[in-house]
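Here is one chain, start to finish.
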Amino acid sequence: MDTSGTYHVPVLLKQSVEGLVVDPDGVYVDATFGGGGHSREIVSLLSSKGHLYGFDQDADAMNNIINDDRFTFVYSNFRYMSNFMRWYGHEKVNGILADLGVSWHHFDDSTRGFSFRFEGPIDMRMNQKEGVKASDILNDYPEERLAQLFWLYGELQNGRQIAQAIGRARKNSRLETVTQLLDTIRPVIGREREKKDTAKLFQALRMEVNHEVDALREMLTGAVGLLDKGGRLVVITYHSIEDRMVKNLMKSGNIEGEIKTDFYGNREVPFKAIGKPVVPDAAEQAANPRSRSAKLRIAERV
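Its structure:
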């Protein structure tokens, strides 16, 4: 697929949107607006009474705002979703969609530092107006903390060796560019695992920079109270850490996956799963390589 000029190719578009919109008159949230692909499909299914709120913390996403009275763009991290929806006058919504993948736009913009395919600054901030850059983490975190980060968010078995290599390199000069980082870690990871381990390293840094786990935890926890009875929670995940959090919440109502019971021993579970997890078919994976690790989960508020 030629992705030049493409902000983002929506993953599992039909399955996710059809699983979300249960009431054309309802109020919905696209927690990860991005290029607006999912949002446009959602709006197309709404009646004149329905409304969609699209959240994104990246100012670039504003270029994709949908010109429709049934759509409102919210320039914010989705961790504040519940607060914003109350501010807009909605105590409950009928559905929440979150596509947790990184867009083509971010990977293909060399100035953002999300991809190791291009030379550029190691930034990785979704919101470029605040927060520390990935280069700050590489240069300022103690080696032990870097090693823990690489294992926790990247599942890198050689994370400690990578952290030590970074520690040695930054004694001479700060690591500020993609090339500097690649030159530093290449002797440690070896040619046969270079692409896979480098991808895991960049994932770990991106997740730390943007506090992705904490933000997802807050969004999912807030969704329990925000969804109306019969409302749908639709989430597309791309790696085991976020998928485990989503699976646990849909199974138990909390991120830890702990089933709670009432005084009489009855299970208190706020969701019921709708079907089995869905993965892209061979055709979609071939057309959109970034969909290969995607997994769609849908649950209904009971």
